[in-house]
Amino acid sequence: MAGHPQPRRPAGPPRILPLLLLLLSAAAIIPRGDGQNLVTEDVTVVEGEVATISCRVKNSDDSVIQLLNPNRQTIYFRDFRPLKDSRFQLVNFSNSELRVSLTNVSISDEGRYFCQLYTDPPQEIYTTVTVLVPPRNLVIDIQKETAVEGEEIELNCTAMASRPATTIRWFKGNKELTGKSEVEQWSDMYTVTSQLVLKVGREDDGVPVICLVDHPAVKDLQTQRYLEVMYKPQVRVSQNYPVQGLTREGEPLELTCTAFGKPQPTDMRWLRVDDEMPQHVVVSGSNLLISNLNKTDNGTYRCEASNAVGKSHADYMLFVYDPPTTIPPPTTTTTTTTTIPTTITDTTATTEPAVHGFTQLPNSAEELDYGDLSDSRAGEEGAIQSVDHAVVGGVVAVVVFAMLCLLIILGRYFARHKGTYFTHEAKGADDAADADTAIINAEGGQNNSEEKKEYFI
User: Fold this and answer.
1) Averaged pLDDT, 309-334
2) pLDDT at residue 256 is higher than 90
3) What is the rounded CA–CA span in Å between residue 366 and residue 357?
């Protein structure tokens, strides 16, 4: 207006920087390629951590380096920070490198960051900052807190608000299982739910089911639930006495029934299959006692146990054997005469076959007691040894008797056949009618008697 001087702008340094930035932004940008003098790398960082962005010059000519954000706002020009964001800090500045750190990174910081070099013509290259977001929560939901053996249960594991989407893996103990996953996206975040259907048995009770997350932003992220499975009792009958021995008539028998289940069995009872329980059988809780076995006790004895899930049983098959027979010592009778001693031996021995009653769990078989067989065989060997000694004595007696008979016969023979010795004077005595004739024959025989014959007148 007339009469009023126009206000003058205060003198100061020319605004060269904004003008220069405007000119550079309007200038042509050289695309990324092999001939670039400007080098950078992409950055991947987990949300909340620190990202480091580096702009480097291969062959420095003292040109100016600057870094711009995805909105093309200047973060650093040389070592000066025009952007008023204190999370950006200068790490290193030189003619060949501009390195800047960004702390407490968030999803909003993700994008392309530009490195510019004021050459003729100017150069520009970008680096991509990727922000990873780990799952914020990992939860396992189970369809039934307590399952019954043989049932199928459903488990769901959910990993919420992650970036990128997670991969969920299932494990039962050390065994990996396969689930079915679904992915939902909200804005830039992903929620993944995996479903596992599992048929449980009694062996699964107390076993952990593990949900494990595979994600580049986190390691060893997992959660687990322990299975609780109810099952009917498992029953077993054991023989306390006799210990692995035969069940013989007249001896005692003691059986014990044990049962395990979930919940623990509260009802346990003994019964005799297809027959009434003998009156002399004593049942005390899980124990069954027969103090004096007899063969009328033969049969199958069953122990039954039950809980809220069901009922189970185990059987014991009893067979009562004869009582053991003792082996009498060998008896020896000796008869002696004036001619020969005679030994007669009479031995008897009986052995009971070695078999015994047994405990039969379902699908079990009978076993024999080899200890009793050894005892019976030892007694039989003792009896045989006694019989051998008696036989040897008898043979010796027969031999002695035969020798004595032979001596008697030989004595009588020699007594009847003694030798005859004749003197000269007795020659012809055998043929003489009387003694005179014998003398005459002895002196010269029959011929000589005739020659010497004398006649008396």
Assistant:
1) 80
2) yes
3) 7
CB neighbour list of residue 132: distance below 8 Å, 6 or more residues apart: 44, 45, 46, 47, 163, 164, 215, 216, 217
Q: What is the C-alpha to C-alpha distance for residues 374 and 350, in angstroms, rounded to an integer?
A: 14
Q: How far apart are the first and last CA of the chain?
A: 253
Q: In 10 A of CB 134, how many CB atoms?
A: 20
Helix (H, G, I), strand (E, B) or coil at 204: helix
Phi, psi of 229 (to 5 degrees): -120, 130
Q: What torsion do the CA atoms of 262, 264, 269, 271 make, to the nearest 10 degrees?
A: 30
Q: Are the CB atoms for 114 and 94 separated by under 8 Å? A: no
Listed in sequence order, the residues at least 6 apart from 324 whose beta carbon sits closer than 8 Å to its beta carbon are 248, 352, 372, 376
Percent of the chain past pLDDT 90, that is, above it, reads 56
**193-242, pLDDT tens digit by residue?**
999 999 999 999 999 999 999 999 998 899 999 999 999 999 999 999 99
The closest of 48, 39, 42, 219 to 130, measured between CA atoms, is 42
SS (H, E, C) 342-360: EEEEECCCCCCCCCCCCCC
Largest Cα–Cα separation, the chain: 257
Instruction: Using CB atoms within 10 Å of the CB of residue 81, give its burial: 0 to 12 exposed, 13 to 18 middle, 19+ buried.
Output: middle
Number of C-beta neighbours around residue 195 at 10 A: 15
Give pLDDT tens digits for 381-427: 444 455 567 788 888 988 988 999 998 888 888 877 655 544 555 55
CB 115 within 8 A of CB 75: no
Q: How many CA atoms lie within 13 A of 435 on its CB side?
A: 0
Whole-number percent of the chain with pLDDT over 70: 69
